[in-house]
Design a protein that fits this description.
single chain, 487 residues, alpha+beta, Nucleotidyltransferase, domain 5, GIY-YIG endonuclease, four-stranded antiparallel beta sheet, 19% strand, elongated
Length: 487
């Protein structure tokens, strides 16, 4: 037989009394709203129920005048219409009471990101910063009940034998959450529940000069983020498929390194740019790091005079170490590897000479004619003294260099790499030619070939991204990539 979701002030819920700090002070919250967009839609009803050491406190339950029209579809779902909220308090009138309930307590909600997003934006409009350290019962269910595929509230009520008589109203949906958490404790034990909650709750250690409100505005979408110092200089640039989670992870005390601590101490401002998918985020990150040279970025910084080994298998000339910037686009297929110095390039040639019994004279590593010193030691196949055909030596050299070869441009001209978000309602186009990035366009369906600038020097980081984007698009975790040749 099912249990009604009824709780009252002063009631003891024994299972919640067994939860350790900080999970012994909770505020269970549910909102009804005019829609699903926290930056544009408004709250129509609030229920907030404090529970300290298992004892239910005095709740806040009230309709809210949203100041905007309530759509009919919302009225059909919740039963709340414009007439019901006429004369109800505005959010700003109850904001202080709500702030007191949330102070020193963790907000618990089903799909907490939804509720905390609406509360953050409503608080900002009211000129109030609400403490919104939150726990989500959806995430908790996914962690504890992994054998189940669905974790919406109706499924959990059925699974744990609970009943709500006023579903889709703030009080009914909020009042069932303490009992649902108690059921989790009964089923899995309070310590297992606390461990699962700890995986969600990461105490943030924010920079002293950073407004914590900015973290609540972070979207859960792909993009690039930037940390700034007091002088406006860019300290760090990063990318993520989930900006909200990634940026907050920098300020999680239990994961801080010395480098993260230094970023933490110096950051005074954060901004970000969203992208349709991971490819665009990686592309923008690589470009911005080279442009701004942030002091805390080790990777992707501008490299000077990168070198490559240039060799044609149809030319008797030995391999040549050249500056990568001097190579014509069509000649990239004759390039092998990228090196920061002549020494590194020569070391690679010396390594393949030993591994493949190649002649150092034929590789341009030694001067002279006739029998080389490596031949005397048995490390050369003997092409230098006519002991093996030159074609055999060149085939081994080709085999040795093949893993380092640049990919051939697989198109007859430029291509637009179209990137759409997972919902398919936002697309951009990244223009490439001969592995060189030429620009990103908000209208990828247009033909931008006539707008192409003269090819810039090859950027090795963007080259690697282009190879993956064009030849292995499924590699990227977010967004959809499609190739559209322009000629």
């Amino acid at each position: 037989m099912s249990d009604d979701a009824k709780i009252r002030p002063g009631q003891l819920i024994p299972e919640l009394a067994e939860l350790p700090p900080p999970f012994n002070r909770l505020c269970f919250v549910d909102l009804e709203t005019t829609g699903t967009r926290p930056t544009r839609d408004r709250i129509t009803e609030i229920a907030a129920i404090p529970v300290d050491d298992g004892v239910v406190g005095t709740p806040l339950v009230t309709l809210i005048d949203p100041g905007v029209n309530i759509p009919d579809v919302i009225t059909r779902l919740t039963g709340i219409d414009n007439a019901m909220v006429a004369g109800a308090p505005t959010f700003s009138r109850v904001a202080d009471t709500l702030a007191q309930l949330l102070d020193s307590r963790l907000l618990v909600a089903h799909n907490a990101r939804f509720d905390s997003g609406f509360l953050h934006n409503a608080g900002k409009r009211a000129g109030l910063h609400l403490r919104l350290d939150s726990l989500c019962t959806v995430k908790l269910s996914r962690k504890l009940d992994r054998q189940y595929r669905r974790h919406n509230l109706d499924q959990l009520l059925e699974r744990y034998n609970l009943t709500i008589h006023n579903r889709h109203r703030a009080w009914g949906d909020a009042a069932v959450l303490p009992l649902l958490l108690a059921r989790f404790c009964q089923q899995h034990g309070p310590m297992a529940v606390a461990k699962a909650l700890s995986a969600q709750y990461k105490k943030l250690s924010l920079p002293p000069n950073l407004d914590p409100a900015c973290l609540h505005d972070l979207p859960q979408t792909p993009g690039v983020y930037r940390f700034y110092g007091a002088d406006g200089a860019v300290l760090y640039i990063g990318k993520s498929v989930n900006l909200y989670n990634r940026v907050r992870s920098h300020f999680t005390a239990d994961r801080q390194s010395d480098r993260e601590m230094r970023i933490n101490q110096q950051t005074v401002h954060i901004d970000w740019t969203t992208t349709p998918g991971e490819f665009g985020a990686l592309l923008q990150e690589a470009r911005e790091v080279k442009q701004h040279q942030p002091i805390f970025n080790r990777r992707l910084r501008r490299q000077r005079a990168l070198l490559t080994i240039y060799w044609r298998d149809d030319d008797p000339a030995p391999p040549e170490i050249r500056a990568l910037d001097d190579i014509e686009p069509a000649a990239l297929t004759h390039c092998h590897g990228v090196f920061r110095s002549q020494k590194k390039a020569r070391e690679m040639l010396q390594n393949i000479a030993r591994a493949y019994r190649l002649c150092p004279q034929q590789l341009g590593l030694e001067k002279g004619q006739g029998r080389c010193f490596a031949r005397q030691l048995g490390h050369c196949g003997g092409v230098c003294e006519g002991a093996e055909p030159e074609i055999a030596h060149r085939l081994r050299l080709k085999q040795a260099l093949a893993p380092k070869a640049f990919a051939a441009w697989p198109y007859s001209g430029p291509v637009m790499l179209e990137e759409c978000n997972d919902a398919g309602d936002w697309c951009v186009g990244h223009l490439f030619d001969q592995w060189r990035y030429l620009g990103t366009f908000e209208h990828p369906g247009d033909n931008h070939a006539e707008l192409m600038p003269s090819p810039a020097a090859l950027d090795i980081d963007l080259y690697k991204l282009a190879v993956d984007g064009l030849l292995n698009p499924a590699k990227f975790k977010a967004g959809v990539l499609r190739v559209r040749p322009l000629s």
